[in-house]
Amino acid sequence: MKTRYTVTAIISAALFGIATPVSKGLLEELPVFYLAGFLYLGAGFGLLPFVMLKRKSGIVKRLKGRNGFRIAAAVLFGGILGPVFLLFGLQYASAASVSLWLNVELAATALLGHFFFKDYLGLKGWLSVLLTLGAGMLLTLHEGSSGLTAGLLVGAACIFWGLDNHFTALVDEITPGESTCIKGLAAGLVNCTIAWFLAGLPFVTVKTVPIALVTGLFAYGVSIMLYITSAQNLGATRSQVIFASSPFMGVLFSLLLLGESVSFLQGASALIMVASIILIHREDHGHHHYHEEMKHIHIHSHDDGHHDHRHDHLEAGKPHIHGHSHDKKSHSHAHNPDLHHRHDHLQEDD
To answer: How many CB atoms sit inside 10 A of residue 281's CB?
Structure first.
């Protein structure tokens, strides 16, 4: 089961990796807020038909209380502030360097998860975070004074996305597709409205907006939907470790699409980041723990020891999604900080 969601996160990373070099080219014609808006509108409108076909019950009714707050926070931090700060950063540095700086999102996700979201992080995890931050500093030195400005902007975007990662991973009354669709439409409309007030209607070529919308559909829409699926089953921090391969995809696409070169420092930082990913991926965790009674909606299968409700027409290991309930349970097994395993660190043993 873990392998399934690891592959899901890798596909998500590959789709997101192409966004940086494509956005770098689109910034030559589109203002920052417009580009951020079109990317998310592409995600929202692209997924809307599938969301409407899959579910007909009211989303608003299912987004009361904590889940409503979580999706609103995800839209603000991940859909509005994050991409805007990233696109401003792209104006000061190469797409290849910005792609690698995005690994700071892993550090932000890990720190926020440990201190605020009950997402377990052990010794190997902390070492991985330090290595990732060190790799980011190497890239800042490579870019010089302009790199410092870009590094601060991209760093802020990563913090915003770190918050977004945890909020979206905890939304359990709507599907990943619905969550991504809501974020795309809300963030896209807000950013385009801000852009219209700041710059009016931009002059663009016929191809510019369609490219932005299609890029948004795959690099933001499908990618985020797959990431949420992984984060709900592996935990936001562990999924972000896997998703950290997206900057390497971005560097590859920057080489292929923009003809940018890779420096020695960029290569060294990439090796450091690979080491940090291996460290945190090898971290294991298991202890005796308790489960309270709960009811929610998420993708699951019946081979994980937590979903024992019956479906006569489904195989035990086949993933599916619907509303289901859990009774109180007490047991011990190796686990990830998924939707069922968010608990205080003082209760945990490595």
So the answer is: 14
